Amino acid sequence: MSYVIALINQKGGVGKTTTAVNLAASLAATRRRVLLIDMDPQGNATMGSGVEKNDLQHSIYEAMVGKAELDAVCCKGLDAGYDLLPANSDLTAAEVELLSMSMKEYRLRYLLAHVRKQYDYVLIDCPPALNMLTVNAMAAAQGVIIPVQCEYYALEGLAALLNTIRQVQKTVNEGLKIEGLLRTMYDGRNSLSREVSGQLSAHFGDQLFRTLIPRNVRLAEAPSHGMPVITYDRQSKGSIAYLALAGELLRKSDASVTTAEVAA
Fold first, then answer.
1. Eight-class DSSP state of 2
2. Which helix (H) or strand (E) holds 147?
3. DSSP letters of 74-122?
4. Under 8 Å CB-to-CB from 171, ≥6 apart: which residues?
5. What is the DSSP code string of 60-86?
6. Side by side, which strands form the sheet with 75-76?
7. What is the predicted pLDDT for the residue at 262?
8. How far apart, in whole angstroms, are the C-alpha atoms of residue 167 and residue 234?
9. 91: Cα within 13 Å, side-chain hemisphere
10. From its phi and psi, is residue 142 left (phi > 0), alpha (psi between -120 and 50) or beta?
11. How far apart are CA 240 and CA 22, in angstroms?
12. Would you write out the chain's pLDDT as a tens digit for each of its 264 residues?
């Protein structure tokens, strides 16, 4: 049974999609079976996986509103090693259509119930908004990863996001947990990056991933070529960082399984 993780931050430009694509590719490189779901109408994770969003016959939108089966929507991320449920601007309409549906918060959970045995990890790239699409992602997930940029205003909005997660835990998914906060766009030569990283460490402690995602030219270039950085330049600092993050996540998952077995 797969482990489902939503990547969430209502702020744009924090490295959320970059993390979704590159963590998916890095987990796939460890021979895990991975599904990446693009839940953002901008379709950036789709494009970053080498799939042209404007040429899609079906997208996650059709699956969410019952117009297509997941098998018809699912495709391969080119040169990425994972499966993809792609998105484009059609997904904007799902936000409105979901409001009139029964059990609207659980549409994605119900869809994934049919395919979770096929994957080890399912990653969901959420839109930069706390809307019904994001709620669906959190209702379907077991854990959330929160990318936070090491820049000014890094902590802004985090309190509201953490409160939303608590509300979801109380109302639609009591098993949801925070997998960790991930520091992105880190530049160790920059005093502000070091200061913000220290603030995050002081505030969140063990909830912070040890891995730091650096500012890296190759990491920034890879999406324009429709590739994860591990495919574009495996030796780059960005690629090495996301492989390290995948390793850290796998160790966390193994520890959680061991703890559960001991408790049982």
1. P
2. strand 143-149
3. -EEPTTTSSEEE---TTHHHHHHHHHTSTTGGGHHHHHHTTTGGG-SEE
4. none
5. HHHHHTTSS-HHHH-EEPTTTSSEEE-
6. 75-76, 83-85, 34-38, 121-125, 3-7, 143-149, 177-186, 208-214
7. 38
8. 40
9. 31
10. alpha
11. 10
12. 799 999 999 888 899 999 999 999 999 999 999 999 999 999 999 999 999 999 999 999 999 999 999 989 999 877 789 999 999 999 999 888 988 888 999 999 999 998 999 999 999 999 998 899 999 999 999 999 999 999 888 888 888 899 999 999 999 999 999 999 999 999 989 899 999 999 899 989 999 999 999 999 999 999 999 999 999 999 999 999 999 999 999 998 776 544 443 344
Q: Is the pTM of this model over 0.85?
A: yes
User: For the range 197-205, what are the long-range contacts, defined as Cβ-Cβ under 8 Å and sequence gap of 24 or more?
Assistant: 197/150, 199/154, 199/155, 200/148, 200/150, 200/154, 200/155, 203/155
What is the 8-class DSSP label of residue 48? H
The answer to whether 80 touches 112, Cβ cutoff 8 Å, is no
Any idea which residue has 């996540």 for tokens? Answer: 249
SS3 154: coil
Task: Specify the length of the chain in residues.
Answer: 264
Beta-strand pair 75-76/34-38: unpaired
Q: Do 115 and 83 contact (CB within 8 A), yes or no?
A: no
198-207: which pairs have CB atoms within 8 A and are 24 or more residues apart? 199/154, 199/155, 200/148, 200/150, 200/154, 200/155, 203/155, 207/178, 207/180, 207/181
What does the DSSP 8-state code read for residue 225? G
pLDDT at 261: 39
Q: Please identify which residue in the block is written with the tokens 């939503």.
A: 6
